[in-house]
Write a structure and sequence with these properties.
- With 208 residues, this protein is an alpha+beta fold.
- 19% of the residues lie in helices and 34% in strands.
- It is built from one helix and eleven strands.
- The strands form two sheets. The chain has a seven-stranded antiparallel β-sheet. Strands 7-6-5-8 form a four-stranded antiparallel β-sheet, with no helix packed on it.
- A hairpin with a 5-residue loop joins strand 3 and strand 4.
- It is elongated, with a radius of gyration of 28 Å.
Length: 208
């Protein structure tokens, strides 16, 4: 009868290798989770932010309660962009066409950039038409025509350098650059551009 001798040392080493392999795999998994966690924190600290829509001033494009992803890294304001603004002050032309700053809304607002620094904005409040540099804007995104003059400016008006002119898409129910408490918005007060709607689920996508 053949006799077989077990190599207990080899079995013991094999068991230890399996344990070490399992431990290393577990540590790799933990390391991956930790890396992903900090990557998300860094992304949303330095590149992206989350913002909520409060109110109906951007209807029909955005609705109350929408959750938005906002990009603010290396952002240069451009006409047509939907932006998040920290409305702490309002800036308008005062006497002798000098810029004057007054207390603002002291809240975060979401609006659309209509014009940037150096451009001319003119609004015909009878027809509800908006012109930038003499060109009539094609605005399929608005809820209704722009027929409310809130008294902040004498039109046509030139947007100062370093500022933007913003309006909500719900033109007859929006506190925006037409009112002195918002006025011209400093580029420094723009938190970022809206790049994605993530809530509600059935409306996920890029707002037009």
């Amino acid at each position: 009868m053949a006799r077989y001798e077990l190599n207990y040392e080899a079995l013991d080493n094999y068991g230890k290798k399996k344990e070490n392999s399992a431990a290393e795999e577990y540590l790799d998994w933990i390391e991956t989770v930790i890396f992903a966690f900090f990557a998300v924190i860094l992304i949303f600290t330095f590149i992206l932010r989350i913002a909520n829509v409060d109110g109906e001033s951007m209807l029909p494009t955005l609705t109350d309660g929408d959750r938005l992803v906002v990009s603010h890294l290396f952002y240069t304001p451009a006409a047509g962009d939907i932006v998040i603004v920290n409305s702490t002050t309002g800036t308008v032309y005062g006497e002798s066409s000098r810029l004057e700053t007054i207390p603002g809304l002291n809240k975060i607002i979401v609006k659309r950039i209509i014009a940037v620094g150096g451009q001319e904005v003119n609004i015909n409040f009878d027809s509800g038409e908006v012109f930038v540099d003499g060109t009539l804007l094609d605005e399929p995104y608005i809820n209704e025509l722009t027929k409310a003059d809130e008294g902040a400016h004498n039109y046509p008006v030139i947007v100062p350098d370093g500022y933007v002119f913003v309006m909500g898409d719900n033109r007859m129910n929006s506190t925006d650059s037409r009112r002195d408490v918002v006025g011209f918005v400093s580029e420094e007060d723009i938190i970022g551009k809206v790049i994605l709607r993530i809530f509600p689920i059935d409306a996920i996508g890029t707002p037009a």
